[in-house]
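Let's practice the habit of predicting before peeking. Look at the sequence and jot down your guess about where helices and strands might fall. Then scroll down.
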Amino acid sequence: MTSRYISADKIHNGRKWLPAGTTLQVAENGTILDILTDPTPETLHFSGTLSPGFVNVHCHTELSHMKGLIPEHTGLVPFLKTIPRHRNDKTADEKLVARHAAYHEMVKNGIVALGDIANTVDSMDIRGNGDLHVHTFVEALGFTPVNAARSFGFALETYDAYADQVAPPDVLLRQTITPHAPYSVSEPLFRMIDEHNSAGPLSIHNQECADENAYYVSKSGRIGELLDVLGVNDQWFQPSGMSSIRTYLPWLSHGKPYIFVHNTFTGRQDIQFVQTTLREAFWCLCPNANLYIENSLPDVAMLMEEGATICLGTDSLASNHQLDIMAEVLTLHRNFPAIGWERLLTWATYNGAFALGMQHHLGTLDIGKKPGILSITGLEDGAPAVTRIV
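Done guessing? Here is the structure:
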């Protein structure tokens, strides 16, 4: 098998920095054949840093045509009220072109695996491209308990379509049904999702705005306004007096992996509750989307203090200017300068692969894996350029 030897000034293996001089023997198909402690005469040396390919744990590619349509800093409730008004402003052809452009933008930016949120079958076309491993999270929505079975049925039809898709060679295509958010899924629907999605991972938009917790604690805030605009009667809803996450988590089984997305207004007690309740919990941060919508960021230092396993996503082009995990890393580094590059790159690579259940295939530079290999220059200068070299 034809192979080559590569090294760099620094190599991050997805978990940590490797010793200076480490050399990777890589097959022509991208599989890592060996990891050597010293260069060989054939070693090709890269300036900067080598890293596994990035993992985008949370993205809505089906909304790619909405780039720039919604103003920044509106807050989540006005943002969500705007989505239905503009979701169909573009033609089917315009949507298709936007999805494919978004897909290739991610590939260009060094992303090798994607957690894609789907309410429709629109994104089936890009799943078949073969450049990204994709876990499709088919969202179920329905806040009215008596309509739970019907809401689940809609999600199941979409799930079945994705499940029937044949994956290109050497590409992982997976799918699960997952809840959208605590304010859009009733308790009976949560339980139906849980029964179908027995192994996970389960992904949910969590505490993205302060109104979500206010609604569950005292039925206050603007969530009621959102439901009213959507035509949802919430007279049946009785607040629990607790945060949203502490309310809905007991409705779900606890043995599967969970991905909590955004967490902008997650408190320490919430994190502690999750960490002691679940076997596997991942906290997916989408900082640029949080700034775009709420102009606020999660308490990342607190998440770290509580031992949270953090991974990264981009959200959608409706709420972000680009689909670029390195841009998310840079935003975190600017706002939390005490977090070193070693940890940030772990969030961008291994932790994301682990969250999507793909850690045995990618996310780390280990023998036998084919993770994609990135060359990153300018990292220490705060202006990195990413190029996929394998």
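How did you do? The mean pLDDT is 96.
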